[in-house]
Design brief:
The chain is α/β, with parallel strands linked by helices and 489 residues long. It has 3 domains: 8-134, Methylthiotransferase, N-terminal domain (Rossmann fold); 142-387, Alpha-Beta Horseshoe (pyruvate-formate lyase- activating enzyme), CATH 3.80.30.20; 396-472, OB fold (Dihydrolipoamide Acetyltransferase, E2P) (Beta Barrel). 35% of the residues lie in helices and 20% in strands. It has 16 helices and 19 strands. The termini are far apart. The structure holds 5'-deoxyadenosine and iron/sulfur cluster. 5'-deoxyadenosine (5AD) is lined by residues 55-56, 175-176, 277, 279, 317, 319, 348, 350-351, 353. Residues 55-56, 175-176, 277, 279, 317, 319, 348, 350-351, 353 line the site of 5'-deoxyadenosine.
């Protein structure tokens, strides 16, 4: 009689950017081929992976405190006669390698982002040899060896899917570790991307989010052997039947070329929202950051984008307290925020990263000053975000439903502008795009009601956060519904 072994269980915790979310999924897919199933509870896991982020010191330190907690989990597993293999992946693994093994005895395996395709082998080796470190930048393309997700795995991950098209960065901003942890720019070829997108769409995915550290610098090999631009790739992907929405992130202002801006004009599936980090509004600081563009050039890019797609919503990243930043530099940043009126933005205190040029500057800004500037910047960003959200109240827009909402009977989805929308709707809307009339704004989401064909709203939201008075005629605000209605989905 044969004995069937219970499947081994995998728990992956992802920190940091969307690239890590994608990589975590690929790790799960590659281990699924070896019989691992994902578990949502770390206590059950046979293999536990922390997919880490090194972008700021806080993010990196989180890993060590988590590893401290995992010691207990590993001891408990051992008491039950189970072996728990703890792996550290991602950018902390790449940057610190052996150091992690020294600092955290709980760790069995350290694996850098370029070696995920070797995970099954590395996990097996760690079981036999003890502690293993693999942070090579191998010559082979890891994407050629990473497993595709099963249809079931794709379905469980929702209606919007990430596709990594580009990895690494050659820009060397003076504050940033990415060129060191993720290496030089690498662009995946068109055929591979197309095949992955077609598989995702066949499994029910409606929205494709192309990701890369410097995604608009993508220049992958086309079927003809020549290099394609991101614009050309987007035009091609928009032709794939079933692709209702396209987005790409994260972009560098220097790589927003004319063709890419024209794609925003021509492709209804390309959503009217763009994350375009600027980091600072001061020319002096932009120069010290080695951003390779000034304030006026950034504003000019946005102007061209708005001409191409008037309802485009901009988002950005900012760093406050970069070495040498004066109060005047900081007010230039606030003025830029006001000039653009970002729909959303992330802001961070400058965090010196070992090995980057800015970390060595003796002109560091005090923690207190950074905290004070961050609070002022965030208040300004929140003000513009609230204004943007309020301007959508009373309008009808298309929502791609992703899953159950905050309250009973609610489903949640995303507007074309990446706003979360909570709607009273049946569970069957999951994975579908429906017209929704926006009825109010909350702290982190909008509220809306499904619109039926005759224009009435049969399902009303009655959640607690409901409140902004609908005002369909706000002056000076482009009508998002106009574009959304012609939005091809
Ligand atoms: N300190 C603070 N913020 C940083 N970022 C990148 N490196 C640092 C750093 N050393 C921010 C930038 C980037 C975002 C992903 O993280 O704003 O766009
Ligand atoms: Fe880092 Fe982005 Fe600058 Fe590249 S372009 S070095 S990823 S901040």
């Amino acid at each position: 009689m044969s004995v069937t072994r219970a499947p081994r269980k995998l728990y992956v915790k992802s920190y940091g950017c969307q690239m890590n979310v994608y990589d975590s999924q690929r790790m799960a897919d590659v281990l699924a081929r070896e019989g691992y199933v994902e578990t949502a509870t770390p206590e059950d896991a046979d293999v536990l992976v922390l997919n880490t982020c090194h972008i700021r010191e806080k993010a990196a330190e989180k890993v060590y405190s988590e590893l401290g907690r995992l010691r207990v989990l590993k001891q408990e597993a051992a008491r039950d006669g189970r072996r728990l293999t703890v792996a550290v992946a991602g950018c902390v693994a790449q940057a610190e390698g052996e150091e992690i093994i020294r600092r955290a005895p709980v760790v069995d395996l350290v694996v850098g982002p370029q070696s995920y395709h070797r995970l099954p082998d590395l996990v097996a080796r760690a079981a036999v040899e003890g502690r293993v470190v693999d942070t090579e930048f191998p010559a082979e393309d890891k994407f050629d060896h990473l497993a595709a997700p099963t249809r079931a795995a794709t379905r469980s991950r929702g209606a919007a899917a990430f596709v990594t098209v580009q990895e690494g960065c050659d820009k060397f901003c003076t504050f940033c570790v990415v060129p060191y942890t993720r290496g030089a720019e690498f662009s995946r070829p068109v055929a591979k991307i197309l095949a992955e997108v077609e598989d995702l769409v066949a499994a029910g995915v409606k929205e494709i989010r192309l990701i890369g550290q410097n995604v608009n610098a993508w220049h992958g090999e086309g079927p003809d052997g020549g290099a394609w631009t991101l614009a050309r790739l987007l035009y091609r992907l928009a032709e794939v039947p079933g692709v209702a929405r396209l987005r790409y992130t994260t972009s560098h202002p220097r790589d927003m070329d004319d063709a890419l801006i024209a794609a925003h004009r021509d492709l209804p599936a390309l959503m009217p929202q763009l994350h375009l980090p600027v980091q600072s509004g001061s020319n002096r600081i932009l120069d010290a950051m080695n951003r390779k563009h000034d304030r006026a050039e950034y504003l000019r890019v946005i102007e061209r984008l708005k001409t191409a797609r008037p309802d485009i919503a901009m988002s950005s990243d900012f760093i406050v307290g970069f070495p040498g930043e004066t109060e005047q530099d900081f007010s230039d940043t606030l003025a830029l925020v006001d000039a653009v009126g970002f729909a959303s933005a992330y802001s961070f205190k400058y965090s010196p990263r070992p090995g980057t040029p800015a970390a060595d500057s003796d002109d560091q800004v005090s923690e207190a000053e950074k905290a004070e500037r961050l609070a002022r910047l965030q208040a300004r960003i929140d003000h513009h975000a609230a204004a943007f959200n309020a301007a959508t109240v009373g309008r009808t827009t298309q929502v791609l439903f992703e899953g159950t909402g905050r309250h009973d009977g609610q489903m949640t989805g995303k507007s074309p502008w990446m706003q979360a929308v909570q709607v009273m709707a049946p569970p069957s809307v999951k994975g579908e795009i429906h017209a929704v009339r926006i009825t109010g704004t909350g702290t982190n989401s909008l509220y809306g009601a499904l619109v039926v064909a005759n224009g009435s709203a049969p399902l009303r939201h009655d959640g607690p956060d409901h409140g902004t008075t609908p005002d369909p005629a706000l002056p000076g605000v482009p009508d998002p519904a106009v574009r959304a209605a012609s939005g091809g989905h």
